[in-house]
Write a structure and sequence with these properties.
Blueprint (H helix, E strand, L loop, with lengths): L2 H4 L4 E3 L16 H6 L8 E3 L5 H8 L9 H13 L3 H11 L1 H7 L3 H29 L4 H7 L2 H9 L7 E2 L2 H11 L1 H4 L4 H6 L12 H31 L11 H18 L1 H4 L12 H11 L6 H23 L11 H16 L1 H5 L19 H4 L3 H25 L6 H16 L7 E2 L1 H9 L6 H17 L8 H11 L1 H4 L4 H8 L1 H16 L2 H21 L4 E6 L5 E3 L6 E2 L4 E5 L9 H12 L3 H21 L2 E3 L2 E3 L16 E5 L8 H16 L3 E5 L3 H10 L1 H5 L3 E2 L2 H9 L18
Parallel strand pairs: 8-11, 11-12, 12-13
Antiparallel strand pairs: 1-2, 3-4, 5-6, 5-7, 5-8, 9-10
Helix pairs in contact: 5-6, 7-8, 7-18, 7-23, 7-24, 7-25, 9-22, 9-24, 10-21, 13-21, 13-22, 14-28, 14-29, 17-25, 27-28, 28-29, 30-32
Amino acid sequence: MDEENLREPLCLKTDSIRMKDPKAQPPTSKEDMNNHVDMDMVIDVRRPVYHTKEFREKFKKPPAPDRNFREIIGTNLSNWCSCSKSRCKGILLDSFPFLKIMQKYKVKTDLPNDIIAGLTVGIMQLPQSMAYALLADLPPIVGLYVSFFPILVYFFFGTSRHAAMGTVAVVSLLIGSVVSTLEVDPTTSLNATLVGANGTALDDTDTALHDELNQRKIRLAGAITFMAGIVQIILGYCKLGVVTTYMSDSLVSGFTTGAAVHVFTSQVKYVFGLRIRRFSGVFQLVLTYVEIFKNIHKTNLADMTITFICMIIIYLVKVQVNQRFKDKLKVPVPIDLFVVIAATLTSHYENLHERYNIRIVGKIPAGLPAPNVPAFDQGKPFVADAIVIGIVAFAQSVSLATLMAKKHNYDIDANKELKAYGFGNIFGSFFSCYPFAASVSRTSVQDSAGGRTQLTNVFSCVLVLIVILVIGPLFEDLPNCVLSAIIWVALRTMLLQILELKRLWKISKYDFSIWLVTFLSVVILHVDYGLGIGIIFSAFTVVIRSQRTNMKLYGKIEDSNIYRNEKDYVKSVQQADVRIVYYNSPVYFANADIFVRQIHETSGVRPEKVLKKMKVMEKERSKAEFSKVVEADGQTTVPNADQNEMKLDLSISCIIIDCSAMNFIDTVGIKVFEQLSTDYSKIGIKILYADIKDPVYAVLEASGFIEKFGGTLYLSIEDAVQAITYPAYASESGVAKPEDRLL
């Protein structure tokens, strides 16, 4: 580029299209554009070389004036206290999202679909609710309560139209790990009576003590549910719905797969008819299997036979019928309910409980439960468990709700969802419920059945209510092993997530390690500890990634102003005495030393070594000069030293650091920038910074870096290269005049 072209007036030719024939005219219509799809399009932009500071002063909008605390409080109070028709309507619609959905509700088309989907999900929910209550170590009727009371509350406050709420395996398992401590507590006389020396289960004839223990468990579960609800409401009002962003897909997958192993293990005793204690705490899975193998010789063959027959039937219908012919079936075959009904009738008329010692569900009370205050005194030691359960329930639900919202083109509010879960759990805690969440399987069925809004949950609740009021006692003879069979088949999709490991290994070794560490921690230690370790390890991998980032040496693509890694791109050429480096990470305390080391390695110049050589050269020159003493007229003189002789012949004169990938910087990173600029300037090498993002620039400006080194910050790599290539147009301060600096 010659001097005449550099001084051309600033112009931006956005419509400049140069074709293979230089004399051809550019197309002027859409039809002409379509006819010239094979042309070479060239972007021709001419503008001044910009320093970042200069560009911001010229184009950046002035910041909004700062308001003091008094003004902020006054404005918020005036907004909160304002009373108008539109304001009241907005508050009402914001507090009760279902009103906004009902405003657009189409009765003729939406209502039939919601009724069919609601009844379909309700039929599916009946056996699953009782099975998951068994998993939570609570009476089966509690599962029906969870599928009714909190779901009604969610209808008013929730924003998801397609999430099927109720009992889920992971939450049931977490609740079971808490309430089971009442059964294994050796300090109470009740447990001393109920649990024998060999760890056998409760005596079936002692119904009074059994009912008393169940009531204590229900009240403890209610206390956990109440505290989980409080946590969810606090998070919702504090706008902390983003808490789930700390749980990556690989972490959630590893966690749920590990939890599925726990769920699977908890049902082994019902499948084989074993009467063993339920362990809790660290290594509970290991201790459980030790106990299982100690008592494996006591297997009840009747329980085992019934379980595997039911599993085969359920699997064949769900996988080979419902999944294979889901496009042809309007609603899936409710095989779970059919199996429960058939097993109950068989158990009742064949008297399986008495003849084969098969454990059955037992007494199921008819009617709605009376409101009961949870056992807050018993729940105090389990505050941490309540927090974990509340967050896990929310994370599973909101991820599923978000997925369905994207599929059906509407938005959900994570903070409103938190409050909806919290209100539902607090209300349900007074009616013998434990925390509810969205079920993957039932949500899928609801969607395939054509559900349009959360009114589907209401119709599902109606069916559950009928069972609670009238039909519930008819399932008293249902074998527990049948519910275990339902749970085991439902775990199939969760356990198959282990097949993701092969794909994760190919995509990202970090995601693979997160999945594996979370899974092993959940399985070996405990569900709670596994989740915590998984989150900590995920955060740790973020730090590791920033530390393992390799600096790239960039070159310019020929006939362009584009810069790419010279090892990966052809026609990428470096300027002889300029090194352009790219760092794909922020610079902060964890990787600051690594950043400096990679600058030294990539540029091939270490300032401290160069300075050391310069000092050695100075000493050697001084000795040489003193040895050459010139005597003139009886006087001894030493020649003046030539300072140019001390300069080393360095291969580069400038290092340009591409900062486009640095989204933040801390005080340590600022010190590193200052150190690099100072150290390299001592040996005659300039450090220039290109493409500084606004958040990073704001930090640099606040620290005083811009005041000292503002002339070394350029808008882009090309600006920095042009400033180095044509230094004659730069002023003494290092800032070129705009009229002399055209790209």
